[in-house]
Amino acid sequence: MGGGARKDGGRLPALSAPQFVGRDGELDTLGSALERTPAVVLIDGEAGIGKTRLLREFLASQAERGRRALVGACLELRVPYTLGAVVDAVRDGVDNVVGLRLSGLGGALRPLFPEWADDLPPAPEALEDATAARHRLFRAFVEVLGRLDVALLALEDVHWADEATLEFLQFLVSRRPQPVSLVLTFRRDEVPSASLLLRLASRLPSDAHLVRLTPGPLDVAETASFVSSMLDGGYVSNEFAAFLHARTEGVPLAVEESLRLMHDRADLIRQDGGWARRRLDRIEVPPTIRDAMLERVQRLHPDSRTVLYAAAVLSGSADFVTLRAVTGLPEERFAAQAAEVLGNGLLREARPGQWSFRHSLACDAVYDAISTGERRAMHLRAGRTLERWPLPPVAQLARHFRLAGVSEAACRYTDEAADLCVQSGDMATSALLLHSLVTTVPLPAGILVRLVTKIQFQALSGSDPYSAIIEALRSALTGQALAPVGQASVRFQVGRVLMVAGEIEAGRREILTALPDLSPGSPETARARVLLALPLGNARPVSEHLRWLQEAPPLTQSMASLDRLRLSVERAFALLMLGEETGWAAAREIPDDVLDPREASVVAIGHTNVGEEATRWGRYDEASARLAKARTLAERHQLVDYLDSIASSRAHLDWFTGAWSGLAERTARLVDDDNGVRLKDRCEAALVAGLLQAAAGDREAAKERLRFAGGDDQQRIEAAAALAQVCLRDGDVDEALRLTDQLAEIVVGGGLWSRAVEFAPARAAALVAVGGSGLPRTW
Question: 10 Å Cβ neighbour count for 664?
């Protein structure tokens, strides 16, 4: 256990909590901003920089002046729970819900506040429209804020917020008058590129009062003052302060944890009337807070470490009973060691009866130190404990049972949590939940296929969300004894995901192998033939693609409505890609709007794809209308991950219609985001960027963009044709001929005449450049 014993047998003085140092300017700015109510204050900065301390100091000053605030924190969970920070803030701010005299709107709060069920108005009538239901819930929260007479709502760590919380914040700032001032803390480097938080910050109403604060690291003098405040005001040598600053970069939490580690090691000494560190020539202070935290943890009694491990497994704040259950310790041993970790500052009481780490970095460091076996056991105990709650938190249960390796429970709760997310319009979280499960837990083939089918790939972020899914499916193929129909079902999913990932020929091979054993008349059989009908990959006759469509089983009422909708949308897209006029009649069957969020995602993709094809057909008004419908759907149902696809297709249309103002900047944002934007969308944006650069005469940059764009099957014809034109301007006729030879094979050889317009000018120019008609080349 740690104790700060000195090597000479004495005791070092206990460390104090650090004083508030180096933030007077930020504190004044925050105070001035909130004098002009209502305001929106965004405090961003790296982990440990002091955002929370700045906020707490400000709130304390406001409390002294009788100004009331509600405070909540978004927890660092793999999957955040819906509106959790807002719920916690309101719960802590309400002493007597009956005294608020809520209108009937208050009944909408019942699912989120089951403990108030006896005191809230009756539940209102259920609404079929998820958007309307969310709007009613948000209005109920605003009513509560108004009845509480609250001037400020502060939410911490909003980079971990769920989509519903961010949507609620947008709802607040869009109302006039704005009900309360907002203070939000977050880490910019952990905000996903498609997060609503970025839209909240960039699209405030024109009359909103926005203030941004970015606390910086402490300088050497401030580091010395900070350390001195922990050492009872003792003088700190400049050498020592510079040493600490160099190894912590002035991040306050890292300075604090490093000093606590040195205190535990008895590595602090009195020197020349002040505090210094032994052996400054040796680099013993850990360069990161993780190392500092882990060394402190290793000095603890084993039972104390167990308490910390349990807190790390639970991740967020935990009550006494839950934390003890996860440790597995007898009550008397738990109480003694829990007191130690609270006493030495490793855990804090976040609010009465709720314990947590003082910072997520500490939580991460401890979690990573837990052995695999102990971690699984603790996640299992956590799951069993949370199952007994009156309102079990299904997203947390899904995480705990998944990490415990209990596949049946993990599947059940993941399914339930994913469906709840879909009902609230949070497709991204639903996809993340399902993706985490199928890629980390070995599942029976039938369950695996069902869950993979439910994943909305468009909602997954990251550069490659597909490989792990394909690996899981292949493992089921090789590691499980499956009947032919079961093998075919798994193999079809492998092929489908490969095609989504852009590996067209590999995907086609898998689907062709699976097709004979798929159930006749099933949605899988129909989708397999529609996917084979898409003119992607190697050149094939259009007649072959059309044959696959003709052989697809008809849509029947026995199919689930989602399957029917998906197949009709994909069939229309295939017909348009093949240049068939009948595709427009099929496209007219795509509805403009639907209530179900899953169906909305399919319709949004459908309109986007039809809009892209309309651009290729030269039907620009149709393309604009389709893309507008897709955007409306995506915004209404909070399908934020779909907006980049719509934006890339819109950029393509704007190139053809001459709407070039700001187009280079829009395409650059899409192309350069290799983590948040799908490769397909980056390629389409790169095509437009390359065309713009070629038009501006920047041919080398244009070539780079166009080669990148050609990596996507849907863009490769237009990209190669544009690249051939650039080569002709450079005098490289041979390369232009080579590029257009490939296009002739695809378009002419396959009979895909609808795409001929994209390469015909480049092909004709290349042939003319070498004497054209006399050469034995395929047109």
Answer: 15
Q: For 318, which DSSP code? A: E
In whole angstroms, what is the distance from residue 74 CA to residue 184 CA? 10
Spatial CB neighbours of 344, under 8 Å, sequence gap ≥ 6: 2
What local confidence, expressed as pLDDT, does residue 422 receive? 79
Are the beta carbons of 361 and 385 closer than 8 angstroms? no
> Residue 365 and residue 355: Cα distance in Å, rounded?
17
Give Cβ neighbours of residue 716 (< 8 Å, ≥ 6 apart).
709, 710
Judge contact between 182 and 153, C-beta under 8 A.
yes
Nearest-CA neighbor of 720 among 734, 733, 710?
710
Question: What is the three-state SS of 323-387?
Answer: HHHHHCCCHHHHHHHHHHHHHCCCEEEEECCEEEECCHHHHHHHHHHCCHHHHHHHHHHHHHHHH
Task: With a cut of 90, say whether residue 375 has pLDDT above it.
Answer: yes
Q: What is the DSSP letter of 107?
A: G
Residues in the chain: 779
Q: Residue 462 has what pLDDT?
A: 62
Position 461 scores a pLDDT of 66
For residue 251, give every residue at least 6 positions away whose Cβ sits within 8 Å of its Cβ, in sequence order, or none.
46, 47, 48, 49, 217, 218, 289
Could you tell me where the beta strands, DSSP code E, fall in 507-665?
Answer: none
Give kind and range of the element (H or E) at residue 274: strand 274-277
Please name every residue paired with 213 in a beta bridge, in sequence order, or none if there are none. Answer: 43
Question: For position 273, what pLDDT does the model report?
Answer: 55
The total of other beta-carbon atoms located within 10 Å of residue 204's CB is 16
Predicted model pTM: 0.65
- Measured distance between the N- and C-terminal CA atoms of the chain, rounded to whole angstroms: 82
The closest of 599, 604, 529, 595 to 562, measured between CA atoms, is: 599
Q: Output the CA angle 21-26-29, nearest 5 degrees.
A: 145
Nearest alpha carbon to residue 678 among 496, 500, 454, 427: 500
Instruction: Return the pLDDT at 268.
Output: 65
Q: Which residue has the tokens 């199919």?
A: 559
Q: CA separation (Å) from 560 to 267, 412, 556?
A: 69, 21, 9
The answer to whether the bond into 121 is cis (omega within 30° of 0) is: no
Residue with tokens 């965004």: 42
Other C-beta atoms lying within 10 Å of the C-beta of residue 416: 16
Residue 688 has pLDDT above 70, yes or no: yes
**Would you state the pLDDT for residue 274?**
59
CB atoms within 10 A of CB 302: 8
Distance separating alpha carbons of residues 703 and 709, to the nearest angstrom: 10
Please state, in angstroms and rounded to a whole number, the distance separating the CA atoms of residues 26 and 37: 18
Cα 511 to Cα 548: distance, rounded to the nearest angstrom: 12
Question: Residue 698, class by beta-carbon neighbours within 10 Å (0-12 exposed, 13-18 middle, 19+ buried)?
Answer: middle
